């Protein structure tokens, strides 16, 4: 640490530049991870709120909530500690107070079921014709008491309250009763056994261990979320970008440290002649890399928080503390791995060159 | 008591018709407080001699002992440890770490041997070499003579048995060169170390106790 730190203090400009590069890369990694996490979240937040273990869909729907049409008769064969019917569709909303048209995701549920979201303003719906909306709709001009028009239907729905984190498939969610949802999706409601819902949500750790009607397939919530349209493709895209940034960091830092080590060959030769071991000198280079990378990551983190505060609300940007810590640690780790190349070159420095030479 | 001894040491580079004998059956030893000069033309084997004496090069035959411990059979790491403990090197130039101040050059030694010598000891050493006022300066801000005095301080700091000086005055003018050699002679006596100075500058020999001449790998005492 002693040598490492003294050299950083001596060549401030040189090392500031390296720290700057690490900070920029860290900043980019953190921003991408924030966008990745934010985008992933707006795909699934409404589902996460259910705090459920499994979902029952039709076997033929291939885990697609939109494609699943489950007869209530079949849905009744699904068991669990807690179960709830869910209807899902999408639509476009207009109203007097709204700025233009707003695309929404529509979730139908029974008002006394366990999947009802927590209301932060107003009250929960109890009757047909009442809806809860995601709080983001409020920012777009919707108020409690507003009548919403849904595209391709003459049905009017009254907003009675707002919920937080009501996002599914990146769209704000309108929560309503099952009959209302059936009317929007199929043109008429049908409360009998021949009526339809999209899915049954199950809260039961042993949910998979049952044999429901033949048309029904029960899957883990995690598997279902992976199949949300676009979800895994988005995540993969971000993961690849972040992964490559890690590799690039290792190379950039590795090359910087290698060049700096080469410049110190003469000094290292003399120190080796004086009896300092390759291990001691390697430790210096590694601890120096650690200091540079850690400072860079901290600065990158600071820039990320500033950016997060300045980003417009529209950007699906969400910082996750655990992700930040993991990515920060990985960045420092790959920087140190990059510096290991230089250890090999330190081992090769011959102390003999210090004698009788330049 | 002999601090450094070379018994029947030879060094051969290459083999067959490219064979070069850099050192031929050399016997050499130094006692505490002795300041020895080795002179000779370039290519005579002076550097090979110093490298072998410093444990940086393994002789083809013969044994090297420092403070009665043989270099033979030691692992690289053990050899480095022995060099660090028993030897002080003073080289032509650039033997100071460029990014450490004069004071830090000494602190580095503390860090390596994981034992801190007192601040007073450091200051006394710098005082005796008349470089105490330079303690916060970097090597680039020092003159050639000052740099060599710092190098001497660095070499003396861990109280080595033997100091090996490789052309320590090469980059200095005559007055500075005399001054550095005088300091080396004085410190050798004061600390009872043994100092071996390789040089081609024959003007500097007045302060030396013994003078050897190296010629084609053969060492001969001339004074």
From TrEMBL, chain A:
<keyword id="KW-1133">Transmembrane helix</keyword>
<keyword id="KW-1003">Cell membrane</keyword>
<feature type="transmembrane region" description="Helical">
    <location>
        <begin position="290"/>
        <end position="312"/>
    </location>
</feature>
<comment type="similarity">
    <text>Belongs to the ABC-4 integral membrane protein family. HrtB subfamily.</text>
</comment>
<dbReference type="Pfam" id="PF02687">
    <property type="entry name" value="FtsX"/>
</dbReference>
<feature type="transmembrane region" description="Helical">
    <location>
        <begin position="236"/>
        <end position="260"/>
    </location>
</feature>
<dbReference type="InterPro" id="IPR003838">
    <property type="entry name" value="ABC3_permease_C"/>
</dbReference>
<keyword id="KW-0813">Transport</keyword>
<feature type="domain" description="ABC3 transporter permease C-terminal">
    <location>
        <begin position="240"/>
        <end position="351"/>
    </location>
</feature>
<dbReference type="InterPro" id="IPR051125">
    <property type="entry name" value="ABC-4/HrtB_transporter"/>
</dbReference>
<comment type="function">
    <text>Part of the ABC transporter complex hrt involved in hemin import. Responsible for the translocation of the substrate across the membrane.</text>
</comment>
<comment type="subunit">
    <text>The complex is composed of two ATP-binding proteins (HrtA), two transmembrane proteins (HrtB) and a solute-binding protein.</text>
</comment>
<dbReference type="GO" id="GO:0005886">
    <property type="term" value="C:plasma membrane"/>
</dbReference>
<protein>
    <recommendedName>
        <fullName>Putative hemin transport system permease protein HrtB</fullName>
    </recommendedName>
</protein>
<keyword id="KW-0812">Transmembrane</keyword>
<keyword id="KW-0472">Membrane</keyword>
<feature type="transmembrane region" description="Helical">
    <location>
        <begin position="324"/>
        <end position="347"/>
    </location>
</feature>
TrEMBL record, chain B:
<comment type="subunit">
    <text>The complex is composed of two ATP-binding proteins (HrtA), two transmembrane proteins (HrtB) and a solute-binding protein.</text>
</comment>
<dbReference type="InterPro" id="IPR003439">
    <property type="entry name" value="ABC_transporter-like_ATP-bd"/>
</dbReference>
<feature type="domain" description="ABC transporter">
    <location>
        <begin position="4"/>
        <end position="222"/>
    </location>
</feature>
<keyword id="KW-0547">Nucleotide-binding</keyword>
<keyword id="KW-0029">Amino-acid transport</keyword>
<protein>
    <recommendedName>
        <fullName>Putative hemin import ATP-binding protein HrtA</fullName>
    </recommendedName>
</protein>
<keyword id="KW-0813">Transport</keyword>
<dbReference type="Pfam" id="PF00005">
    <property type="entry name" value="ABC_tran"/>
</dbReference>
<dbReference type="GO" id="GO:0006865">
    <property type="term" value="P:amino acid transport"/>
</dbReference>
<dbReference type="InterPro" id="IPR017871">
    <property type="entry name" value="ABC_transporter-like_CS"/>
</dbReference>
<keyword id="KW-0472">Membrane</keyword>
<dbReference type="InterPro" id="IPR003593">
    <property type="entry name" value="AAA+_ATPase"/>
</dbReference>
<dbReference type="GO" id="GO:0005886">
    <property type="term" value="C:plasma membrane"/>
</dbReference>
<dbReference type="InterPro" id="IPR015854">
    <property type="entry name" value="ABC_transpr_LolD-like"/>
</dbReference>
<dbReference type="InterPro" id="IPR017911">
    <property type="entry name" value="MacB-like_ATP-bd"/>
</dbReference>
<keyword id="KW-1003">Cell membrane</keyword>
<comment type="similarity">
    <text>Belongs to the ABC transporter superfamily. HrtA family.</text>
</comment>
<dbReference type="GO" id="GO:0022857">
    <property type="term" value="F:transmembrane transporter activity"/>
</dbReference>
<dbReference type="GO" id="GO:0005524">
    <property type="term" value="F:ATP binding"/>
</dbReference>
<dbReference type="GO" id="GO:0098796">
    <property type="term" value="C:membrane protein complex"/>
</dbReference>
<comment type="function">
    <text>Part of the ABC transporter complex hrt involved in hemin import. Responsible for energy coupling to the transport system.</text>
</comment>
<dbReference type="InterPro" id="IPR027417">
    <property type="entry name" value="P-loop_NTPase"/>
</dbReference>
